[in-house]
Design brief:
Number of strands of chain B: 0
Largest interface: A-B, 99 and 95 residues
Number of domains of chain A: 2
CATH topology of the largest domain in chain A: MetI-like fold
Largest sheet of chain B: none
Strand content of chain B: under 5%
Order of helices and strands of chain B: HHHHHHHHHHHHHH
Strand content of chain A: under 5%
Mean pLDDT of chain A: 85
CATH architecture of the largest domain in chain A: Orthogonal Bundle
Helix content of chain B: over 70%
Shape of chain A: globular
Structural class of chain B: mainly alpha
CATH class of the largest domain in chain A: Mainly Alpha
Oligomer: heterodimer
Strand order of the largest sheet of chain A: 1-2
Number of helices of chain A: 15
Radius of gyration of chain B: 26 Å
Low-confidence stretches of chain A: 1-24, 308-312
CATH class of the largest domain in chain B: Mainly Alpha
CATH superfamily of the largest domain in chain A: MetI-like
Chain lengths: 312, 281
């Protein structure tokens, strides 16, 4: 308590008034500890320490209980780079991430533009378009597992009715990743729509009025006025979508479990398999470090783009 | 040619355009909620009909009754609710406190510490599950509510978002508070929090949904229905012999989705305003 009294209070005569002030007024440092301490401690235990530990473990070999045995230098990284199945996972992850981002942004933008129309009942459609935001991963997986089901699903029934070749979506290595992509994009739509819709609303009407007066076609207006005006938001949504896609786990676990023939064995799923199913903790740690680097790069790009906004 | 005709033609064209616009909206709407509608509809059909591929049958709530009476789905919901509520409240408290420290307090290493918070936002929790699993096992938290709450009591993202909002508070408010002799705690509690109401609501909706949607971590750390949250619970139901009981699975999914849709409908407005403000303004 003595340390938290302000220095001035000590040199003054101890009148009752000064004492109460002294009691109430903590030093800035005391307050900093009080306000920042809990968060800092929690982040240290559950984010910083695990990150360092993961990095550390990636340079060692481990036994099946996850205990460190021998120093292996960059050996884990070397064997990871020589592992063809890891490259396949990385390739699948990158194509998944890229396709998800493109489709999410394009479809989200279409929905956001459609919802800009001044029509009766537009609020109802806005609610519809943002509704997938409230749908969690296991619920989405159930809906789409049913839709992709080879005997009772809508896709199977549609292709039957139209005499198209039937695709066993989740069991076919050529289509399983696409099925996961479709489901992911669908889940992303609500959030993306909401953010892009907000951005479109903030484009000043006067810009469009001026373009109308100048006789600029609607399509040109979209390309030359709308897109540049909402580009910060577009970049924001893109990076958020990319980061989320890199972390995808739930849908894969629920819909394909990494199969068929590793076609959907994306990076996070691989970490989980190697650590918690195969007991290869060192290898899983090495993969975690690579995953972190990939996500860190995207995040850095995000910070750079929003640097001025972010730090003032 | 009477002058009436062009007006009629114009009127018709306008009407066609309007119909076209609504058709587009309805089409897009159906694509978005199609899978959801299909799921809801299936949840009302008898499983026997569904497994024959029929999309028609006697509608009833039987599947809901089966789901509620034969599976722990309500318990899963309760578990998720407890976990999400505690996580949300604590994130609101701790994130706003650390945000306050970065905006209104002066202390040593303030800038490096803030940089540390920013760095945290780059580190995915998914890549750190191995040491975290060891930590919670050592702390004896496995298979308990605490294991799904303690690691998420605070977030760097929440701190960052609220900091952005606190920065926008008029300087005069703090000056006036200093003149009045308000302590930092009083200013935080009486002025800052009420000022940031919208941002706090946004963060609350975001925290609640994130916690509710947790999947990997609960799967690794909970082993009994007593504490299992709903995402993991649905996985459990699917994994059991009920796998082909599509009607009941869909009914369980519907039971799970309704609370989040309610949170979303209430929070939608704040979510939009807050995220746009915190993230991109």
């Amino acid at each position: 308590m003595q340390q938290s009294l302000s220095g001035k209070a000590k040199t003054r005569p101890l009148t009752p008034a000064n004492v109460t002030v002294g009691r109430r007024r903590w030093s800035e440092r005391g307050y900093a500890l009080l306000f920042l301490g809990p968060s800092l401690a929690l982040l240290a235990v559950f984010i910083f320490w695990p990150m360092l530990k993961t990095l550390y473990m990636s340079f060692f070999l481990t036994d099946k209980f996850g205990h460190i045995t021998v120093f292996n230098g960059l050996g884990n990284y070397r064997s990871l780079l020589q592992d063809a199945s890891y490259w396949a996972s990385l390739g699948a992850t990158l194509s998944y991430v890229a396709v998800v981002a493109v489709l999410t942004i394009v479809l989200g933008l279409i929905l956001a533009v459609a919802a800009q129309q001044q029509l009766k009942g537009i609020g109802f459609f806005k609610t519809l378009f943002s509704s997938t935001m409230g749908i969690s991963v296991s619920v989405a997986a159930i809906f789409w597992l049913f839709a992709f089901n080879p005997s009772v699903g809508v896709f199977a029934q549609l292709s039957q009715a139209l005499h198209l070749p039937e695709i066993n979506w989740l069991a076919d290595p050529h289509f399983a990743l696409l099925a996961i992509i479709i489901t992911t994009v669908w889940m992303n739509l609500g959030f993306t729509f909401l953010i892009l819709f907000g951005a479109l609303q903030q484009v000043p009407r006067s810009l469009y009025d001026a373009a109308d007066v100048a006789g600029v076609a609607k399509r040109t207006q979209f390309l030359k006025v709308t897109l540049p005006m909402i580009s910060p938001t577009l970049f924001f949504v893109t990076t958020v979508t990319l980061i989320d896609a890199f972390k995808s786990f739930g849908l894969i676990d629920l819909m394909t479990a990494g199969g068929p023939s590793n076609a959907t064995n994306l990076l996070v799923y691989r970490v989980y398999q190697d650590a918690f199913l195969n007991g290869s903790y060192a290898q899983a740690s090495t993969e975690s470090v690579v995953l972190t680097l990939l996500i860190a790069v995207v995040t850095l790009v995000q910070f750079k783009l929003f640097g001025k906004r972010v730090t003032y | 040619m009477t002058p009436i005709q062009p007006v009629v033609a114009h009127e018709n064209k306008r009407r066609f355009k309007l119909i076209g616009r609504y058709t587009l909206l309805v089409g897009l709407g159906l694509i978005v909620i199609g899978p959801f509608i299909l799921g809801l509809w299936t949840s009302l059909l008898p499983t026997a009909a569904i497994s024959k591929g029929a999309l028609w049958g006697k509608l009833s709530f039987d599947n809901y009754v089966t789901a509620i009476t034969t599976t722990p789905i309500l318990r899963y919901l309760l578990n998720s609710f407890v976990i999400a509520m505690v996580t949300t409240i604590s994130q609101l408290l701790f994130c706003s406190m650390s945000a306050y420290a970065f905006v209104f307090l002066k202390f040593k290493y303030q800038r490096p510490l803030f940089a540390l918070f920013l760095v945290t936002m780059m580190l995915p929790f998914e890549a750190e599950v191995i040491p975290n699993f060891a930590t919670v096992r050592a702390l004896g938290l496995l298979n308990h509510y605490a294991v799904m709450i303690v690691p998420f009591l605070t977030t760097a993202f929440g701190t960052f978002m609220l900091r952005q909002n606190f920065l926008q508070m008029p300087k005069e408010l703090k000056e006036a508070a200093d003149v009045e002799g308000l302590s930092h705690w009083q200013f935080y509690w009486r002025m800052t929090l009420p000022y940031a109401k919208i941002s706090l609501l946004t963060l609350a909706a975001y925290s609640f949904l994130s916690s509710w949607n947790q999947y990997l971590w609960p799967m690794l750390t909970t082993f009994s229905d007593q504490f299992r949250p709903v995402q993991d619970g649905l996985r459990q139901l699917q994994g059991q012999e009920t796998f082909n009981n599509w009607g009941m699975i869909q009914a369980s999914a519907a039971i799970v989705v309704i609370p989040t849709l309610i949170v979303l409908l209430i929070g939608q407005h704040y979510f939009k305003a807050g995220l746009n403000e915190g993230a991109v303004k």
